[in-house]
Write a structure and sequence with these properties.
The chain starts with a helix and ends in a 6-residue tail after the last helix. By secondary structure, the protein is mostly helical. It has a single domain, classed as Up-down Bundle (Chorismate Mutase Domain, subunit A), CATH 1.20.59.10.
Length: 187
């Protein structure tokens, strides 16, 4: 009886699998794409706290030495994940520029309002979270690209809807997404 059922329904199951598997694959790609966008948004979400720390400690927003460290780390991690290090560096430069834009705008707001009293610890609180999110972003890029999902213009609306930082302009978001389109696998 079981073989009769299997023979009878096997063509139907094969037909359904040819329809459902690509749909499931697209769903997994959508989930990975959204996870990437959310990780970027979460990383940018720390920038007001970074700006607050720098304001309280009278530290300039731009820290070229730290940027070099972040960029070198991103390139090394990208290479270890099979991604093109130069294209990842381009994306991280865009991400750093967006992060600085948020910090500058927040710092400007602090000129006309009282600086919050909450304690912010850049070294042991924020920086490890940013480093982890940076690693997650690179890993998510690698997952997408290794599954032959290249980010494209159809992903732009989802990206713009996902990035929710109120101190980030549409132009900042567009520049960041354009840099994401350049990320590719290593040759």
């Amino acid at each position: 009886m079981d073989s009769l059922i299997a023979n009878r329904y096997l063509p139907l199951l094969l037909c359904l699998s040819s329809v459902l598997l690509p749909t499931c694959a697209r769903s997994a790609e959508s989930d990975s794409t959204l996870a990437l966008f959310q990780a970027i948004d979460e990383r940018l979400g720390y920038m007001e706290e970074v700006g607050l720390y720098k304001a309280k400690n009278q530290i300039p927003i731009e820290d070229l030495e730290r940027e070099r460290i972040v960029l070198n780390d991103a390139k090394n991690r990208a290479a270890s994940q099979g991604l093109d290090p130069e294209s990842m560096e381009t994306f991280f430069i865009a991400q750093i520029n967006a992060a600085k834009a948020i910090q500058y705008r927040y710092r400007a707001q602090l000129l006309i309002q009282e600086i919050p009293r909450r304690n912010v610890d850049l070294q042991t609180g924020i920086r490890p979270a940013l480093d982890q999110l940076g690693s997650d972003i690179i890993r998510l890029f690698a997952v997408l690209l290794s599954n032959e999902h290249l980010l494209n213009e159809q992903d732009r609306d989802l990206f713009l809807a996902t990035i929710q930082r109120n101190l980030l302009t549409d132009a900042d978001k567009q520049a960041l997404f354009s840099a994401m389109l350049e990320v590719k696998l290593a040759r």
